[in-house]
Amino acid sequence: MHLGVQFENSNEIGVFSKLTNAYCLVAIGGSENFYSTFEAELGDVIPVVKASIAGTRVIGRMCVGNKNGLLLPQATTDQELLHIRNCLPDSVVVQRVDERLSALGNCIACNDYVSLIHTDLDRETEELVADVLGVEVFRQTIAGNILVGSYCQFTNRGGLVHPHTSIEDLDELSSLLQVPLVAGTVNRGSEVIGAGLVVNDWTAFCGLDTTATELSVIESVFKLRDAQPSNIVNEMRASLIDTMS
Amino acid sequence: MAALGKRKAEKSPTPSSEEEEEEAGNGNEVTSGSEELDSDESTDPEDELNTSSDSEHSSQPSQEIVDVDFEYFDPKPNDFHGIKALLRTYLDDETWDISGFTDLILAQTTVGTVVKADEDESPIALLTALNIGRYQKCSCMVEIHKYLRVKSAHKVESALLEDFWGKYAREVALLISERLVNAPLELAPPLYQGLFEEILWATEDEPTQELRESFKIKHYLYLTKVFEEVTEEKSRDKEQRKQKEESEATGQLIYIKPEDEILHELSSWSFTFPVTGDGAAANQTKGLQQLRLVMAVDAKHEEKFQAELKKLIE
Asked: Which protein family is named in the record (chain B) (predicted)?
């Protein structure tokens, strides 16, 4: 199930929202349309929370999270942190991270089991990612870009990466992440996948400019066609990743 | 359109310009026209750069002169994102179908020009004209009409505007001219020359009679951005020692694109309205208020406009 959305005329919805299997964060915007689209689609399954981070609306790029936890930059105010913590399910650990590279959403990409991080991220942050998000952490680049969070988006079922990723890189990443990956674009040729698309195991939202071809690629790689939230909740999946030493 | 080189004596044919010459048919005429302008422009950019940097950093040993060549192209599908970015503030912060509007501009290959530093770069400037009667039913045009109708309510010009969208729709074209804030003034004359020529050729070259008629334009409707000078007066309330700030508009308009002033002088009617939303706040400079200016220009002033524009540059 996919939906085309716009945030105040911008198609970069991944900048203004964060979607996981357990919750959804949405920026406070001019019109209610953005929030109501998410609310209508997800409202009865997971909480949809309006939030700001460090007083900004670019929450999708500032934070990173999955069903286990949510990491916020140091600049997040106490009020914002409290609000988010209150609204999210108790099982989700919300933590502030003191990291020089504060746009965590650009530096870290993750699903519920694995994550890719920016090559220059601190060791402490890497450990926090592993602890709070409960994931295996890999330092990687995507098509030569160190901002892994910006140029790929992956869930427990599949992933979409920067269009210029080579076949060898695709295979390597796919074996690391243990999900099928495809190189493609979103929002009519935009390479910044993280900004144009938010996705979880049963729904995807992308900018209105996304073409039908791009949409069909997204539907097929993320296996959205016959996805239901109950399938995910009832499934238990063992981690299949060997440690790379 | 052919390439316009600032410092090139000879013209190296690029693949794009050859294609466009075939499409335009009369491309050779355009080439010779733009070559004449070369000598005028060759000294201006460097002068601009030298004077600005000299006055501030006269102690610095060397100034870097940046040579920029601007080339004129027909809008292509690749330019979608660039053109959309230029049109982002066209209706301030209204939510409307900008993508659809951009698609309309891209689809009209016969009339419309985009200025880029290089073929693969993003557009720096856009100039095109869309016949209102022809595109009236498109959702983006409906939204533009609604926006202008709302903004012109309670004004004298409201009825005139409605006529442009009503009975005169087939003779009116929406003039769309957007460019990056610091784009040089010298880009304007070839842009407008190209536009008027393309419209003229379209009246002859278009395949159907209906399309040919749609380019016989009698009026241009133009929406642009201007600033207005605002004086602030502070007066003290003696009893409570409060400071009151009162601002008064002086009515003095400052045009962001210099050719807008000429168009405004030649216009049949015009009105202004204040800008709403975040864009306005961001651009707030002390003493200046941002406005939108809507004007109607009669097509028979084309030549006078081009002559005035040329004088402005020299």
From this structure: Belongs to the BCP1 family.
The string of DSSP codes covering A75-102 is T--HHHHHHHHHHS-TTSEEEEE--SS-
State how far the Cα of A206 lies from the Cα of A222, in Å rounded to an integer: 13
- HSE of A117 in the Cβ direction (CA atoms, 13 Å)? 25
Interatomic CA distance for residues B116 and B122, integer angstroms: 6
Q: In what order do the strands lie in the sheet with A64-65?
A: A64-65, A69-73, A93-97
Non-local CB neighbours of A230 within 8 Å, separated by 6+ positions: none
Contact B268, B286 (CB under 8 A): no
Residues of B in contact with A8 (CB under 8 A): 93, 95
* Contact in structure between B312 and B262 (CB atoms under 8 Å): yes
DSSP letter (8 states) at residue A245: -
pLDDT along chain B (314 residues), means of 10: 38 37 36 37 41 46 82 91 91 87 93 90 93 91 92 88 89 93 88 93 90 91 89 48 49 87 92 74 69 92 91 85
For residues B273-291, one letter each, b for 16 or more C-beta atoms within 10 angstroms of the residue's C-beta and e for the rest, the string is: bebeeeebeeeeeeeebbb
Q: How far is B258 from B312, CA to CA, in rounded Å? A: 8
Rounded-to-integer distance, Cα A175 and Cα A102, Å: 28
DSSP helix, strand, coil percent of chain B (3-state; round to 5): 45, 25, 30
In the stretch 71-110 of chain B, residues with CB closer than 8 A to chain A read 80-81, 88, 93-96, 98-99
Pick the CATH number of B71-220+302-312 from 3.40.630, 3.30.70, 2.60.40, 1.10.10: 3.40.630
Answer whether A15's CB lies under 8 Å from A106's CB: no
Question: Could you give the dihedral angle defined by the CA atoms of residues A165, A171, A172 and A174, in that order, rounded to the nearest 10 degrees?
Answer: 100
DSSP assignments along A145-210, one per residue: BS-HHHHEEE-SS-EEE-TT--HHHHHHHHHHHTS-EEE--BTTTBS-HHHHEEE-SS-EEEETT-
| ipTM of the complex in this document | 0.76
AA identity, residue B176: I
Q: What is the pTM of this model?
A: 0.75
Yes or no, beta carbons of A209 and B99 under 8 Å apart: yes
SS3 content of chain A, % helix, strand, coil (to 5): 30, 25, 45
